[in-house]
Amino acid sequence: MNIGIIGGGAVGLLFAAYYGEQHNVVVYCKRKEQAQKITTEGIKLKYEDNYLVVPVSGKGTMEDLKLQELIIIAVKQHQLESLLPLLRTLPRHIPLLFIQNGMGHVSILQSMLQKSIFVGTIEHGAVRMGDRAVSHNGIGKTNIAVFKGGSTVINTFPLLENPLFPVVFNHDYLEMLEAKLIANAVINPLTTLFRVKNGELITNPSYYEIFKQLYHEILKCFPKWDNHYIDDIIKICVNTSKNTSSMLKDMTEGRKTEIEAILGYIVDKGKKESVDIPVARFVYRAIIGMEIERGIRAK
């Protein structure tokens, strides 16, 4: 299958490396220098002490995007808006897979004319190590659900025969996205605020108290989720204890974070539904303030 991946960050490179072993993959990059490097040298995938180079094409323009049989959009949610005019010109038969944190993009997808739209979340740990290298720091799974197109559309999605990159299909896209959102809304902002790795949210008693407070507040906006889901989030922190969250990495490297798409979405939801979530509002404003302090965001 011809697969196009928009985005040359950690997630885009990780998908390109694993799918590139079995399919013809093109990575569409923002910078032509990155695209050229991927084309000439392939993607270097690191897992533990093993290295694998996967031949993949890179392109700095999206002129031939309409030739792909599946397009994976692996950019951050705040970068999605600029892609919409292009995506709306694509032939309607080309399936799209959106992999973003948060849930702000759900309203955007409702306006798309594509016949088949998938949404996905990932549980892997991945760090980009240059223009054409990615480190797979923790095996999780890729969760996929049909957003538009009917239940049989899932049969058209390409599976991989690789235990390091399992793909799991979910019947309820909303439940799948909410699960990821709640976990991200607790882990990402707190690791960024305290500038710690994931595991320290559990091992430091003071951080853990705030972790629990934020979690229980967030659940007020998602009443169908029970209190036991915190066990799954704790497990994520334990399994990725030495990982740096994507939000902390963005903040450290001077990039705009996804705070609005993650915790901002929940703060807005609380406001609309008259749910009082003061800890969530404080953490949200604190991250926004950190971005302003660093010149990442205008005042």
Automatic annotation (TrEMBL):
Query: Which reactions does this protein catalyse?
Result: (R)-pantoate + NADP(+) = 2-dehydropantoate + NADPH + H(+)
What does the record give as EC number? 1.1.1.169
UniProt xrefs under PANTHER family = 2-DEHYDROPANTOATE 2-REDUCTASE, 2-DEHYDROPANTOATE 2-REDUCTASE-RELATED
Any one Pfam family here would be ApbA
The name under which this protein is listed is 2-dehydropantoate 2-reductase
Q: Which family does it belong to?
A: Belongs to the ketopantoate reductase family.
Lineage of producing organism = Bacteria, Bacillati, Bacillota, Bacilli, Bacillales
Gene Ontology terms for molecular function: 2-dehydropantoate 2-reductase activity; NADP binding
Pathway(s) annotated for this protein in UniProt: Cofactor biosynthesis; (R)-pantothenate biosynthesis; (R)-pantoate from 3-methyl-2-oxobutanoate: step 2/2
Domain (Ketopantoate reductase N-terminal) spans: 3-148
Described function? Catalyzes the NADPH-dependent reduction of ketopantoate into pantoic acid.
Q: Which InterPro entries match?
A: 6-PGluconate_DH-like_C_sf, 6PGD_dom2, ApbA, Ketopantoate_reductase, KPA_reductase, KPR_N, NAD(P)-bd_dom_sf
* Ketopantoate reductase C-terminal domain span: 177-290
The coiled-coil segments of this chain are none
Provenance organism: Lederbergia lenta
Q: Which domain of life, per UniProt?
A: Bacteria
